[in-house]
Design brief:
Structural class: mainly alpha
Number of strands: 0
Shape: elongated
Number of helices: 5
Order of helices and strands: HHHHH
Distance between the termini: 10 Å
Strand content: under 5%
Helix content: 55-70%
Length: 131
């Protein structure tokens, strides 16, 4: 019974963490930085899974649009928050992560019944948004 509220909560917490890390002047004080583009890519791949569990009945294009617009807003916010800067390569990494994550969700939903059952937990059918 708590599955869907937990999925929604974890998605909003993820957005809060990404917003904080994206807009803080020195994120390296909070999280060790390895490869910046890899971190963007992996982070938005995880966000694609997260939004899929929070809103499994939203169309893939809606999920992708939301995450890409969110990441664009963070990049624009960085432009106004020195020493951070707007970086187009970060946008490419974010968008690529979203695309890979959502493709993986589609693949797993189609070919792994356990994943599909978790994604649509407590829904009457996969087609009706009664979660």
């Amino acid at each position: 019974m708590l599955w869907r509220p937990l999925c929604i909560t974890q998605f909003y917490l993820l957005l809060i963490v990404y917003t904080y890390l994206g807009l803080t002047p020195h994120p390296e004080n909070s999280v060790p930085v390895f490869n910046d583009l890899l971190m963007h890519f992996v982070g938005y791949t995880a966000a694609a899974f997260s939004i899929s569990f929070a809103s499994p009945h939203r169309a893939i294009w809606q999920r992708a649009s939301f995450l890409i617009l969110f990441s664009f807003a963070i990049e624009v916010g960085q432009f106004f928050n020195p020493p951070r800067t707007f970086n187009l390569t970060d946008m490419v990494a974010n968008s690529s992560g979203v695309a890979l994550g959502l493709c993986a969700v589609l693949f797993l939903t189609k070919y792994v019944p356990l994943f599909s059952n978790l994604l649509y937990w407590k829904c009457r059918t996969k087609e009706t948004p009664l979660c």
